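Name: C2H2-type domain-containing protein
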Amino acid sequence: MNMNSTKFFCNLCAEESHSDGIAQTQIAADQQCFITCKIESSEKTLLNKHFHCHTKLMPNSCYICQKEFSHKCSLNVHYHTNTNEKPYSCEVCHKVFSNKYNLYRHYRTHTNAKPYSCDVCHKAFSEKYNLYQHCRTHANEKSFSCDVCHKEFSHKNSLNVHYRTHTNEKPYSCDVCHKEFSYKHSLNIHYRTHTNEKPYSCDVCHREFSVKHLLNRHYQSHTNIKPYSCEVCQKEYSDKVSLKRHYRIHTNEKPFSCDVCHKNFYAKDKLSLHYRTHTNEKPFSCDVCHKNFSKKNSLYRHCRTHTNEKPYSCDVCQKRFSDKEYLNRHFRTHTKEKPFSCDVCHKNFSKKHSLYVHCRTHTNEKPYSCDVCQKRFSDKAHLNRHFRTHTNEKPFSCDVCHKNFSQKYSLNRHCRTHTNEKPYSCDVCQKRFSDKAHLNRHYRTHTNEKPYSCDVCQKRFSDKDNLNRHYRSHTN
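Structure predicted for C2H2-type domain-containing protein:
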């Protein structure tokens, strides 16, 4: 067909048409026509078909749900949604689709083809629809407004999706676990947690991701570029989302609330993780020992106990760690930074978890209970440590002398007897100690502090061991 022959223009929107462009605008008549696309056509029938978008003529009706369409081919595509028929298959990954256009669109994820280019900034897109949306960012055109909050949008579909934030509508449901979602995109991402599909791969280290924005965020770990800076504390971030989430720490904003206990969180992923404490859901399983975890990061951290991998290194003392959080926590031993403060007594802590545990000393909250003796604890680590007194389990072993310990802290302290390491130093007399508890006990010789008191005679002691020894004088 000669594309240079007569062109036809729509009298209402001045849109030109050709067969490929019209195929992409064959949509239900209640949607908006893209007025600025300037498509050309050499066939008058295709232009007439496009004209239905303005006349709202919908002569084709679905006999199952009675939904009406302006074009017969749109009706045929719609039929597949009722029958769940997917006759079109991808030759590369064998994924199936209900219509041919979705197959073509999907195929570009393999070829990385982006045939649609912006005339202003030359940014390329794999879909024409995305190009139209992008063009409105240059024109700053936002012709669709929300009736509830008056927020404006450049596209009607974006407005429809936004409405669900007001109605809490979740029309998309997972076939596996029946979890519901407001957006189809969220459902597709969630579905990969069941299939373990990770279609996005890093070109540098070949690490795979289930979501594209996680890949983009990961790329910046190779470049170490952090263009977003916090105005309060000047901390830098590689992406805008992380900065926004961090900023809520300063504003104390917690917009995400748990439906069960009404606890509030500053980040949505923190709420999702918390919710599993109610459901006891542990969707992440170790391939080696089959231990289950509620957090993916906990699984990754656990897996390193099998591989003995420690990819994170301290710039000051070169000590290596299996987890980045452990490294950050350790680094504060060098900087003496204590960013977490108690609202009641204003005591500062270097670890957030230590602050949580400390706060329970004010509330006397002890949420963790021993199944054997019913003794209660304010911290889960204390419960686990206590439980080993019943099982006599000693899972931590010294690599040098093979002595076993029930607590990791005890192992670390013991290892220093081999290395003669004394990392804790007194600020007053510079005497060094291998154990922090020994430093604290020593420090009281300077301050003359005696925090331990006898219940019988009220005599005070600087050390708990001395108190216990003193007790025996009362019990003979």
